[in-house]
Specification:
The structure holds two protein chains of two kinds.
Chain A (H helix, E strand, L loop, with lengths): L4 E10 L2 E11 L4 E6 L5 H8 L7 E6 L2 E2 L5 H5 L2 E5 L10 H5 L1 H5 L6 H10 L16 H13 L5 E5 L7 H17 L3 E6 L2 H7 L2 E6 L2 E6 L1 H5 L4 H22 L1
Parallel strand pairs in A: 3-8, 3-9, 6-7, 7-8
Antiparallel strand pairs in A: 1-2, 1-4, 4-5, 9-10
Chain B lengths: L1 H8 L2 H31 L1 H16 L2 H19 L8 H25 L3 H9 L4 H31 L12 H10 L2 H30 L3 H22 L10 E5 L4 H16 L3 E5 L4 H9 L5 E5 H8 L8 H16 L2 E9 L2 E6 H7 L4 H7 L4 E4 L7 H10 L5 E4 L2 H9 L5 E5 L4 H4 L2 E3 L11 E6 L7 H7 L8 H12 L8 H11 L4
Parallel strand pairs in B: 1-2, 6-7, 6-8
Antiparallel strand pairs in B: 3-10, 4-10, 5-8, 5-9
Helix pairs in contact in B: 1-9, 2-3, 2-5, 2-7, 2-10, 3-5, 4-5, 5-7, 7-9, 8-9, 9-10, 11-22, 21-22
Classes of the chains: A alpha/beta, B alpha/beta.
């Protein structure tokens, strides 16, 4: 069963600025949600309140109905996948050791077979397990990052600009692969991105954030048909304009 | 070169002590630096404070830092009791460990601040606890940098450990300091070669470990680590006293840094060994340190001079005459220090004016009063402190001395200056062997303006009433005349083939003084 999430009046203040201004939100199990917004809109901070890399100043975050601040963060994190732009592979460990890290922390040892299976899930050759991260391309490294996130059989996958540093071809391929895995592994997935096109193509629900608030909460279809307000439509305008230019070129 | 080789072979024992001291200091420094670095990586204030302190320590000259631990430990006796050692291994260990702190700490902190933040975030995100993150991610990634810091610390420590000789801890500084004092350059060279060689070997082995960490080559770092461990273990093993306790009492003799003191130490040591004691030497102690050391029992006995105690420790500037001064010192030592002045050895090592025999004859000078008449045409030479000392002001005022020129020379060059007519008269030391070797005339002091410098044996408070020890030492009192002492000093100070070690000179002196 995929995880459910609820945010109740979640607020985060740093000295003078308010990164999150009272977020209320419910996430159904099995949904694929994109958080979109400009830099500093609060989308990454909101994501990090889930795995407690950030704790809210006010309000609570409920994971499967339970307040996350009442749980041991290390134990909880082992049960969710987290992929982020910096990738953060451990440079002194092999690809295989990187992937097996989550289970290792709770005393489980992943078999070579399971590591090969995880590598195949993200379209990598099983013999990559013995390589060091530095020997891999950026796209391959991020695939390993995804495989590592999936190693602990999570029910919740958190992704913070996961494909930001990849070339367009790799980016598209890996995005599609993650969408497949989301369905196949029965995950609840939350992806932070600044790219509206990516959000529209991959997610089934798109949240637009601005200055710590959610200003739009729509399906991709609704956004494409002009709903969601000015801020959301300004973001949608970019891929729409690009598509139009493409069409004009074809004609 | 073969002389250096022979000297090197004789350094096994101090080499082992040097290795043990350095290894312990680096170990202690590392043990303190690493937790501090972890703490510093979590707190800016700690980072700034710790690095600031370590840098400050580094600005203190190593020699001063070593010396400072003597009074520090002395004051800590109030807390830890009177058995806390104030000389030797403990202060040397603490000072060197403090010195080793900076490079290790700085490299560890730098390594931590340079860790990729993405990697640290990933460590948290996969659910590592504080200790797991430290052990699995931070430690292995920082290891090569930390090892580089330990390597730097090792080279510094091995070099600075030679200075621990001055606070009574045997090290490769022993041959260097002894050689400097007795102008035995073979010994100095051997000490330097051994200490530099040790530093090079340690640097190479630790470098091997560092590169093993960097290239994740287990064979390389393990090999280096084993070689280091074997070396240190061998040093420890060589220092274990396999012989059973022979029930003999041990007497620790402290000496200052010049030849005469080294010779007297050996002379008394031989005597005590014959009387059934074990003897240990703490040689080359600083003048102030040695006086404190006997008062607190770190050493059992040492040699000092009446004029030195009078001016330096009692801070007196008057001159009541030889006997009155001696009696006042005996009383002062007993009442203020708890120590016992056992008696005079028989000779003086005083300041005295000396001239070349031919020059003195030519000018008709036999006393300081004669000198005063000729002084306006003469150049006087003294050691660097002489013309600032109360003795000079006293003798100047009593005789009305006024020289054409006053020049400062280091003690060794003072005699050369006389020979090469750079100076007409110098303030020599009366027991110096070069007085007779250079056929110098020591000018008489009819008005007793210069204080006396009778050589004394001084016992620590615990030994003050040790009748067996006193019985063994008493035959030495009054037995050494200044001619014999000069000859012994000269035999150690000379630089030709007749040069003797202090131990050899001590045996010759005992014979000449009728002790054998």
């Amino acid at each position: 069963m995929a995880s459910s999430l609820a945010f109740e009046g979640v607020t985060k203040r740093y000295d003078t600025t308010e990164a999150l201004a009272g977020i209320d939100l419910t996430v159904e199990p099995g949904s694929f949600i994109a958080l979109v917004g400009a830099s500093g809109s609060g989308k990454s901070t909101l994501l990090k309140t889930i795995n407690r890399l950030v704790d809210p100043t006010e309000g609570r975050v409920l994971l499967d109905g339970e307040d996350v601040t009442t749980r041991d963060p290390t134990e909880m994190r082992r049960r969710m996948g987290y992929v982020f732009q910096g990738i953060g592979l451990f440079p002194h460990l092999t690809v295989g050791e990187n992937i097996a890290m989550g289970p290792r922390l709770v005393g489980e040892k992943l078999t070579g077979e399971r590591i090969a299976e995880l590598l195949e899930l993200v379209d990598l050759q099983p013999d990559m397990a013995s390589r060091l991260p530095a020997e891999l391309s950026g796209g391959q490294q991020q695939r390993v990052g995804v495989a590592r996130a999936l190693a602990g059989d999570p029910k919740l996958l958190l992704m913070d600009e996961p494909f930001g540093a990849l070339d367009p071809v790799t980016r598209d391929a890996l995005g599609t692969r993650v969408r497949d895995l989301h369905a196949r592994l029965d995950l609840t997935t939350i992806m932070v991105t600044h790219d509206m096109a990516e959000a529209l193509i991959l997610a089934e629900r798109v949240l637009v954030m601005d200055r710590g608030r959610i200003v739009a909460d729509e399906t991709p279809q609704a956004l494409a048909s002009g709903k969601g307000g000015d801020i959301a439509q300004a973001l949608v305008e970019i891929p729409r304009h690009q598509a139009q230019r493409m069409k004009e070129l074809e004609a | 070169m073969s002389a250096v080789w022979t000297a090197l072979l004789g350094l096994g024992d101090v080499l082992a002590q040097h290795v043990i001291l350095s290894a312990c200091a680096i170990g202690l420094g590392t043990a303190v630096a690493l937790p501090l670095a972890v703490w510093a990586s979590r707190s800016q204030a700690v980072s700034r404070g710790a690095l600031g302190f370590a840098s400050l320590v580094q600005t203190i000259p190593a020699l001063a830092l070593l010396a400072l631990f003597f009074p520090i430990l002395l004051s800590l006796r109030a807390v830890f009791g009177p058995d806390l050692p104030t000389l030797g291994f403990l202060p040397a260990l603490l000072a060197l460990a403090l010195y080793a702190l900076l490079p290790i700490l700085r490299n560890a902190v730098t390594a931590q601040t340079n860790l990729d933040p993405g990697v640290l975030q990933a460590a948290d995100a996969v659910g590592m606890s504080f200790w797991q993150r430290l052990r699995i991610v931070e430690a292995p990634l920082a290891a090569p940098y930390i090892m580089a810091g330990i390597r730097t610390a090792a080279v510094w420590t091995i070099g600075a450990a030679t200075l621990s000789t001055t606070i009574g801890q045997p090290s490769l500084g022993d041959p260097i300091f002894a050689g400097l004092q007795t102008q035995n350059w073979t010994l100095v060279l051997a000490g330097c070669i051994a200490s530099a060689g040790l530093a090079i070997v340690a640097d190479a082995l630790l470098g091997l470990i560092e590169s093993g960490f960097r290239h994740r080559d287990r064979r390389r770092w393990l090999g280096g680590a084993i070689a280091v461990a074997v070396g240190v273990a061998a040093a420890f093993a060589s220092q274990v006293d396999w012989s059973r306790d022979d029930g003999r009492e041990t007497i620790v003799i402290g000496t200052k840094q010049f030849s005469e003191q080294l010779i007297l130490g050996r002379l008394v040591g031989d005597r005590l060994r014959e009387a059934g004691y074990n003897v240990e030497y703490l040689e080359g102690l600083g003048s102030a340190v040695v006086a404190q050391a006997v008062a607190n029992g770190s050493i059992d006995l040492y040699f000092d001079y009446t004029g030195t105690i009078w001016a330096n420790q009692m801070k007196r500037t008057d001159n009541p005459g030889r006997n009155a001064m001696y009696n006042a010192i005996v009383k002062w030592e007993r009442e203020k220090q708890g120590t016992r002045v056992l008696g005079k050895l028989g000779f003086e090592n005083a300041y005295a004016f000396a001239m070349r025999e031919d020059r003195a004859k030519e000018l008709g000078i036999t006393t300081i009063a004669d000198l005063a008449r000729a002084a306006p045409r003469l150049v006087a030479g003294g050691d660097p402190e002489w013309f600032e000392r109360p003795e000079w002001f006293a003798v100047r005022d009593v005789y009305g001395l006024k020289f054409a020129r006053q020049r400062n020379f280091s003690p060794t060059f003072m005699y050369d200056a006389l020979r090469s007519d750079e100076a007409d008269v110098i303030t020599a030391y009366t027991s110096d062997g070069r007085i007779s070797a250079d056929r110098l005339r020591v000018l008489e002091d009819p008005r007793e303006a210069l204080p006396s410098y009778d050589t004394l044996i001084i016992l620590s408070p615990e030994r003050a009433n040790d009748e067996k020890l006193i019985a063994a030492l008493r035959p030495l009192l009054g037995s050494i005349n200044v001619e014999n002492m000069r000859e012994a000093n000269f035999s150690v100070d000379r630089t030709d083939g007749e040069k003797k070690t202090p131990a050899e000179a001590a045996r010759a002196l005992a014979k000449a003084s009728g002790q054998e």
